[in-house]
Q: What sequence folds into this?
């Protein structure tokens, strides 16, 4: 029965009713997703309070929250979060630009793919963390080696997605451009780029995820500031609440950037005929 | 006006494509190309449209406009990221100038209320109508149609055939329709070319001297249909 009603609602897509229902449905979905985390937090807090867990090893959620507030009040929190965020963004930007330039050329020109792709694939098979010692030797333990490591990590997923996105563009659409005597540049700008946008955005999202992974490695290696540095401090001063606090901050930052990209994706791809755009 | 002189395009060691085809089409004429599958009729259209340039022979298209060729494919081939309106304007040389006429074309194909919709929200017939408007807005001298309605249901098909007739009468566009639907060819075309063989050659040419719009149940057309069927059948026996 409910399905029938929903379908009727769909016909008046522009109507306010369906929007309202959509929001309601979204809120309900969000609330459902919060149930288990909330329960876990309550159990965790209770376990520490009743001394089932040792607070020195496993601090209560409230202790961790206090630690974060304390850092914020000291004013050091913003410095740590800021520098980490900054490194990820610069590395992400550099990696994205390199991937877009190389990926577009490799995707578009067959001969360039034959020239470059084997080399790039060979580099891809190197675990990116193996670069760390070399980057530190070359660039010291300053910002540039960290940014470089992130850029390398971000590069590959974006590159791969751009190449496969461009190569997967429907030949039939390109023919439409040829009928209108488009120049190669026009074909790229008006057909190939928009058509490969979905896979580019997928690449961006996995790229930013890897960026957050590599920043931890980079900051564990040697840093005097940043969330990764807080992890090291927490370990050395035996304060698990600091470690968990930075893990949570990492998670929040990672989630925030991913949601941002996801929103961008939904906005840019509202034309896609897929399950997500059905409602 | 469209002139083809001894055009040949073959592949698969000369077993597919078409061989040594010559014809000429007058301005404002509608010509249908019928043939069994694999006789090179779609290849012929790709050569005429300039998508396939590896042919021998000569093709001459003479017209006044800045866009000599318009093409309607079997599928709508709309850009999924553009709205109906943007899709119609896709390929228009001077988009600003065409903005003024877009409404006219939307009305012509009956999509005035759908200009802001994306292709995913359109039915097959609506998508194909968008493709028709896109091909027409550039005011091509010759309109090439590659089995344009074969993916549509019978009812939509008839509607779009009537739409095409209306457009043809208003604008006197020269049209070449590749089809495997004999009734469609008889309903739309002034002349029908029968292609056959592998590679295909021009087997026969029929003039349909019946004023348009025609009656789909016309007995004269039925006679012509029998004639065409026989022509195609003979071809089959040769192979």
A:
């Amino acid at each position: 029965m409910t399905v029938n009603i929903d379908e009727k609602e769909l016909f008046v897509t522009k109507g306010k009713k369906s929007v309202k229902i959509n929001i309601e449905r979204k809120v309900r979905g969000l609330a459902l997703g919060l149930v288990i985390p909330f329960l876990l937090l309550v159990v965790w807090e209770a376990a520490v309070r009743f001394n089932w867990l040792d607070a020195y090893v496993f601090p209560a959620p409230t202790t961790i929250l206090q630690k974060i507030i304390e850092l914020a009040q000291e004013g050091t929190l913003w410095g740590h979060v800021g520098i980490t965020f900054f490194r990820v963004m610069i590395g992400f930007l550099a990696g994205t630009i390199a991937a877009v330039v190389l990926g577009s050329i490799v995707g578009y020109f067959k001969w360039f793919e034959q020239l470059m792709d084997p080399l790039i694939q060979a580099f891809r098979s190197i675990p990116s963390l193996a670069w760390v010692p070399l980057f530190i030797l070359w660039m010291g333990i300053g910002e540039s080696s960290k940014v470089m490591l992130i850029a390398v990590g971000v590069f590959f997923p974006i590159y791969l997605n751009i190449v496969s996105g461009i190569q997967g563009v429907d030949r039939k659409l390109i023919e439409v451009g040829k009928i209108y005597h488009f120049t190669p540049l026009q074909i790229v700008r008006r057909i190939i780029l928009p058509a490969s946008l979905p896979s580019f955005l997928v690449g961006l999202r996995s790229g930013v995820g890897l960026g957050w992974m590599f920043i931890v490695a980079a900051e564990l290696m040697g840093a005097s500031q940043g969330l990764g540095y807080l992890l090291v401090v927490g370990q050395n001063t035996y304060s698990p609440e600091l470690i968990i606090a930075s893990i949570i901050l990492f998670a929040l930052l990672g989630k925030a950037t991913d949601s941002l990209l996801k929103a961008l994706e939904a906005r840019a791809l509202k034309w896609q005929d897929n399950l997500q755009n059905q409602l | 006006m469209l002139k083809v002189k001894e055009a040949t395009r073959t592949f698969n060691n000369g077993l597919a494509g078409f061989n040594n085809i010559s014809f000429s089409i007058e301005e404002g004429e509608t010509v249908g190309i019928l043939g069994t599958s694999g006789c090179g009729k779609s290849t012929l259209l790709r050569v005429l449209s300039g998508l396939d340039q590896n042919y021998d022979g000569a093709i001459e298209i003479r017209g006044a406009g800045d866009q000599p060729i318009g093409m309607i494919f079997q599928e709508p081939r709309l850009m999924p990221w553009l709205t109906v309106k943007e899709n119609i304007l896709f390929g228009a040389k001077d988009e600003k100038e065409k903005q003024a006429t877009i409404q006219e074309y939307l009305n012509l194909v009956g999509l005035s209320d759908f200009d802001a919709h994306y292709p995913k929200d359109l039915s097959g017939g609506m998508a194909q109508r968008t493709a028709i408007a896109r091909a027409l807005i550039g005011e091509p001298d010759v309109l090439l149609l590659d089995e344009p309605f074969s993916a549509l249901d019978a009812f939509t098909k008839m509607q779009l055939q009537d739409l095409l007739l209306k457009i043809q009468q208003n604008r006197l566009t020269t049209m070449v329709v590749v089809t495997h639907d004999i009734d469609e060819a008889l309903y739309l075309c002034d002349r029908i070319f029968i292609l056959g063989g592998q590679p295909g050659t021009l087997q026969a040419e029929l003039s349909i001297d019946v004023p348009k719009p025609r009656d789909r149940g016309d007995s004269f057309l039925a006679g012509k249909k029998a004639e065409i069927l026989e022509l195609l059948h003979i071809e089959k026996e040769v192979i």
User: Anything to note?
Assistant: The mean pLDDT of chain B is 85. The domain at 1-64+178-239 of chain B is CATH 3.40.50.300 (Rossmann fold). The longest helix of chain B spans residues 219-238. Chain B touches chain A at residues 49-51, 67, 69-71, 73, 75, 77, 79-82, 90-91, 118-120, 138 (CB under 8 Å).
